[in-house]
Structure formats: C-alpha cells, structure tokens
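[Q] Does anyone have a clean structure-token version of this?
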Amino acid sequence: MNAVLAEQARQTIEAGSKSFALASRLFDARTRASAVMLYAWCRHCDDVIDGQELGFGQVNSPQGGEAALEQLRVATGRACAGQPMSQPAFAALGEVVRTHDIPPRFPLQHLDGFAMDVHDRQYQTEADTLEYCYHVAGVVGVMMAMIMGARDEPTLDRACDLGVAFQLTNIARDIVEDAQIGRCYLPLDWLNEAGIPRERLAAPEYRPQLAELASRLVNMAEPYYRSARGGLTALPLRSAWAVATARSVYREIGVQVREQGAHAWDERISTSRLDKLRLLCQASGIALSSRAETSEPRPPGLWTRPR
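[A] Here you go.
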C-alpha cells in the first residue's frame, strides 16, 4: 500500500468528516489505509461536482457540471484499468481497486449519483430517493465491505443498507441547507401531502411540516440501520468495531434531528466529542457481542441494490 497516498487520504478524511475519521482509526492498518483512500476519491469527486473543497464553500451552479462529470468518469475508468494516475485521488482509487479486486462498475455507479445532481433529478417517490441514496452512499458501503474482506452478497447487501441509512440521515439533517442551493432529495409525493411547495422548502413558516418529514426520513432509516447491525457478524472484529462506531454516531445525528423538531435547522447538527466517545464505547460492546451472534434475517421490504 502506497504510504504517501494513504497519508494524504488520512488528512482528507480528518478535515472532511470527523465522524468517519474516528471510525477509520479503529481499523487495522491495511484496512484503514484502503478505507481512507476510497474516502479521498469519493470526497474529491463530490468537491469537483460542487466546486467545493473538502465539502466547504459555495456550491457551484450546475452549468459545466456535465463536462466535470465526464472528466471524472474518464479518470475513474483509467484508474480502475490500472493506468498510472498523477492526481492523488485517482491514484488512490486505482490502488484500492487493484488491492481488493473491486469491480469497476461500483465506482462508476457512485458517479451516477453525482449525475443526478448535475441533471437536477427530481425524486417523486420514496423509491426514487432510495435509488439516489444507493448511488451516493450505498454503493460506497459495498466497496468498503469489500475492503474489509466481504464478498458474499448478503453481507454486501447489509453494507449497502448502512450507506442508505447514512444518506437518509444526511438528507434529514441537510434539508434546509440543500434547499437553499436548489436541491431537494425528499420525495415530492411527501411534499405534496404536507402542502409544502418545493420552491419554498427552506421557508421558516414550513418548519413544523418539515420537521414531520424529517422525522419520517429518520424513521425510514431505522430498518436499514437494523439490517446493518446484522451484518457485523461477517466482519473481522476491528472492522466490526469501526462499522458499529460509524453506525452509532450517524444514527445519533438522526435521533437529534427528530428530537429537535422544527429547530433542527437552527444550526447544523453534529455529535460532540463526548457523544462520540460514549458511542465508541457502546459500539465496542456491540462489536464484541456480534462475535457470538447469528445474524437475523434482513428486515423485509427494504429497497435492494441492483445486481
């Protein structure tokens, strides 16, 4: 594993996501290096499409997004084909793909999620929103599970479910922030039922109804979090601890969104350092207990990733 690329990726995750940075420290060294390098590629692609740096800064207008997306697709294809790459994010992706034999279709499916933003995709139904969640997060969960050594489809399904749960939580937390830049990932069917005009989604007078929809999203994530809990038994102990920690920290964000109701968007919700420490300790117990457990069946009725 390229130590320089791994260190650059570590710096990226430390700056871009405190929650995932914490969880990544629990992996063994080899798994951690690959996990943070995959994260660095995902972060780079997201930043290119939005015109940001490490997720910060004003989001660009979609004009020109198609050209940027095509450049990402070409570079990703080259990296997955094993060609030498000068950009660190793509060199990192190439190394991860080769080391863990990750099919190129998975990184390319992740880029399909950015295409939805570039093309201003409208999400009419729950299934439409879940499809978006798969591309921007569920497929990343699949690739992360492969880095941890998983290959069987049921375990990859559980990993996908965790990514979907993360994204549903993200959507709930960021509804107003997204609406302010013209994006809406809530099903339009829900907005119609609640009487909220899409173009007025960020308006303060709709916060009570918005809180109900956010709570609905958080509740929708719960069976996906539960499914992911059942997938820990298939992972090595340290990987199970890392995944359980990320799961607990992100789930806590959703709990806070639900509890704060109409005030959930007064300031960006995050978990404190003390919360993270508590949840890390809690996750260690979950990971240890998973060693003696038989995984429960995946909850029925969940959206299932494409094969």
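[Q] Thanks! Anything notable?
[A] The chain has two domains: 1-102, 122-307.
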